[in-house]
Design brief:
The complex is a heterodimer of chains A (234) and B (195).
Chain A (H helix, E strand, L loop, with lengths): L9 H4 L2 H17 L3 H17 L4 H7 L1 H15 L9 H27 L2 H11 L2 H34 L7 H29 L17 H13 L4
Helix pairs in contact in A: 2-6, 2-10, 3-6, 5-6, 7-8, 8-9
Chain B lengths: L12 H19 L4 E2 L8 E2 L1 H29 L20 H19 L12 H26 L4 H8 L4 H16 L9
Antiparallel strand pairs in B: 1-2
Helix pairs in contact in B: 1-2, 2-3, 2-6, 3-4, 4-5
Classes of the chains: A mainly alpha (234), B mainly alpha (195).
Protein name (chain A): Cobalt transporter
Organism (chain A): Natronorubrum sulfidifaciens JCM 14089
Membrane topology (chain A): Multi-pass membrane protein
Chain lengths: 234, 195
């Protein structure tokens, strides 16, 4: 599983907003081009980005294994035709190139995940999106991070209890509805307690955030992000 | 030392409760990503994620339902492993499953609008059954329409190729999820927050 790893690489030193801009720029241009030459250039850019964050390539690929299955099957499905010639190579290679660029986009986002702590991402969201929507998104994301392991444990407990009572031999609808009903009612009990605790601590629309600042290395990287985004129009 | 003086702008009680529920449902969506239940005679097991998207619309309504799912997408985008196969990253939001992911907030909003008809929430157990069924079926069509449509465009597939890769294997599971969602709201054990 790919997570943040403290380090001192170039990517780690950049402002999170710069790194978000690079990802958006890269995705924009990758979605616009599928020619072999463009893919070659994009591969080099992606390689440099991965190197700048020292992403372990195999770990990143295994993190996206579910997507890789679809990306590998898509060209086969595109190539198959009913009747002669049974397998159309031009269709398959068009789809193959399209799938390859998606792989590059995924790997570039792996570099962000490895090099950016959550609180920096949260501050970036809250500072970029103004007003109450930014607050809701920033605090909400922090709560999702906090409660994910708790609710995973809840679901595990419920599944164990169901299995102990031979619940896993019941019908699919019953299993799905029991699991989600219990999961949801536990989650909402926690939410009600959380709401009370938030109010007790003066939950406000204008709390104080950690400071973010662009450093000298941010500006050339930000310019690079802009070039990537504009190259979509080439 | 420079000091800042601002008055504190407290969040309303009802909004805090809805917001806490939205955040927890978003976390539950993530926690449900690795949970799958095999169904007979189908290659694709059902996952509970779409079921929680239905419930977001049914229980949180047309405003907080989509908000909850946007929180889930944002948390995944900045690195929490909540997408299928415990993956994460902004790239997933433009990758091959992006159409499904972006359809979730729209589907939750649409289901919320059709069931509650207003930002004031009604108890979904009291809403007539055909309305709930139609809302869930429309939501499912929206999810699979956007999901396969985007996949076809992105991977340069034909319409039928995308449908057989991205929709047909999952349809039996979807019908079961609609049944499960109806069983849950009609049990009356989960009440929306009514102001």
């Amino acid at each position: 599983m790919l997570t943040y790893d403290p380090d001192d690489t170039l990517a780690h030193r950049l402002d999170p907003r710069t790194k978000l801009a690079v990802q958006i720029g890269f995705a924009t241009t990758a979605l616009a081009h599928t020619s072999p030459r463009a893919l070659f250039v994009l591969s080099i850019v992606a390689g440099l980005i991965l190197f700048s964050a020292r992403v372990p390539l195999l770990e990143a690929l295994s993190a996206y294994r579910f997507a890789l299955v679809i990306l590998a099957i898509a060209p086969l499905v595109a190539g198959l035709t009913l009747g002669s010639p049974w397998f159309d190579l031009t269709d398959a290679s068009a789809s193959g190139r399209a799938s390859y660029r998606v792989l590059l986009i995924l790997l570039v986002s792996a570099a962000y995940i490895r090099s950016t702590p959550v609180r920096a991402s949260r501050a970036a969201i809250q500072r970029t999106i103004p007003g109450k929507p930014g607050q809701v998104l920033g605090i909400g994301v922090a709560l999702v991070f906090r409660f994910l392991p708790v609710l995973q444990a809840d679901l595990r407990t419920i599944r164990d209890a169901m299995a102990a009572r031979l619940g896993d031999e019941r019908g699919v609808v019953e299993r799905a509805s029991t699991l989600s009903l219990l999961g949801l009612s536990r989650a909402f009990d926690r939410a009600d307690r959380l709401a009370l605790a938030l109010q007790a601590r003066c939950f406000a629309w204008n709390p104080t955030l950690p400071t973010l600042a662009f450093s000298r290395v941010d500006y050339p990287v930000l310019a690079g992000a802009l070039v990537l985004a504009l190259s979509a129009a080439l | 030392m420079a000091t800042e003086q601002n008055s504190v702008d407290l969040v309303d009680g009802d909004i805090v409760r809805q917001f806490a529920r939205a955040a927890l449902l978003a976390a539950l969506l993530g926690a449900a990503a690795p949970v799958s239940i095999p169904i007979p005679l189908s290659p694709a097991p059902i996952t509970l994620q779409v079921l929680f998207v239905f419930l977001a619309g049914l229980v949180l309504g047309p405003v907080w339902g989509p908000t909850s799912i946007l929180l889930y997408l944002a948390a995944g985008a900045i690195g929490l492993p909540v997408f299928s196969g415990m993956s994460a990253g902004l790239g997933v939001l433009v990758g091959n499953t992006a159409g499904y992911l972006w359809s979730y907030p729209l589907a939750a909003g649409l289901i919320g609008l059709m069931v509650h008809r207003d930002t004031e929430l009604r108890d979904p157990a009291a809403v007539s059954l055909p309305v709930v069924i139609v809302a869930l079926v429309v939501g499912t069509i929206l999810i699979y329409g956007m999901g396969t449509g985007y996949m076809a465009w992105l991977l340069e597939l034909g319409a039928w190729e995308a449908i057989s890769l991205g929709a047909l294997p999952f349809l039996p599971g979807e019908l079961l999820k609609i049944a499960a969602a109806i069983a849950i709201v009609k049990s009356g054990r989960i009440k929306p927050i009514q102001s």
